[in-house]
Amino acid sequence: MASALFSFILLPLLTLHLLTLTQAKTTQCRTSCGQIPINYPFGIDDGCGSPYYRHILVCSDSGQLELRTPSGRYPVLNVSYTDPHILIHDPFLWNCQDGNNFRPPRPFSLDASTHFRLSPQNDYLFFNCSADDVIMESKPMFCERFPEQCDSTCDTSSYLCRQLPGCSSALHGSSCCSYYPKGSESLRMMLKHCATYTSVYWRNLGVTPAYNQVPEYGIRVDFDIPVTTRCLWCQDGTKGGGTCGFDTQTQDFLCLCEKGNVTTYCKDQSGQHSRAAVVAGSVTAVSVAGVFVGGAVWYLKKLRAKAPVTHGVQTNDNRLF
Fold first, then answer.
1. 76: β partners
2. Percent of the chain as helix, strand, coil, to the nearest 5
3. Confidence at residue 109, expressed as pLDDT on a 0 to 100 scale
């Protein structure tokens, strides 16, 4: 009887202490994943950053930042906030080590309902396409820089086909053509009639033209940075230097501060948020009360027990490929 009473009192206290520690740790947003900085509008903790990008970036247990899309999770190589874009690596795309070993690709897709979009600095190379189903011909050189002024044929004289980044002679006689897609359906059709494909983006070297870009394998995804007055006030060091976030239940704006979360900025005491639960893992008064009520019910049932008891979308409209 005494041990049962001790358990009844101790269990809720230990649970409350654990939940309090959880709240203290999760109200702060992580600012990096591995070597990649995590700044607004992104967040890898729920309630951090902009709700437009909620649950899109994931930091794995090994410290690898990954982008979630309808077709899977892809390692992030870099994130730029000055020229807003994400560089990702798709391991299912052709690379120099493949040579003429064309592995079946897994189509990469990007949800068009998000604030992400494929960068026009991407080029797509298709290998061993069927000449009966794909129109392939040589294009003038200006088409590589101004593809919108040319027709939609697959360019067999593309510079990237002649100078594959890092392995110019890797194909050994296999055909290659460059095609800039103008719609998701045309990309899916290309994959039906070509052995595989790869993506090359043009990395900016930050120097003056004309040699200010170099081609590298990967997919560049551009993103928008939603700018609001409330977020600027929240981040202002003279107003407390908070972190822009949102309520995980209502998705309303919140400024995340060391001493609590407010709806304006950290030094504005009138903007204090009334609820404690704003970030995943935080505690509400209801959850704490539930611990005590649950403990009381458990204790009463234990006293009354006479004997042990056993208890037996993705659609084609939002796909890139």
1. 88
2. 25, 25, 50
3. 82
pTM of the model: 0.72
pLDDT digits (tens, 9 = 90+) for 153-166: 888 888 899 899 99
Q: What is the DSSP string of 168-212?
A: TT-STT--EEE---SSHHHHHHHHHHSSEEEEEEEEE-SS-SSS-
235 membership: H or E segment, kind and range: helix 229-235
Helix (H) or strand (E) holding 220: strand 219-223
Tokens of 192: 């039906």
Strands, sheet with 243-246, edge to edge from the N-terminal-most edge strand = 243-246, 253-257, 260-262
Q: What confidence score (pLDDT) does residue 28 get?
A: 74
One-letter amino acid of 120: P
Task: Tell me the C-alpha distance between 192 and 215, whole Å.
Answer: 26
Per-residue buried b or exposed e for 107-118, using 16+ beta carbons within 10 Å of the residue's own CB: bbbbbeebbbeb
The β-bridge relationship of strands 136-137 and 154-155 is: parallel
Q: How far apart are CA 305 and CA 108, in angstroms?
A: 58
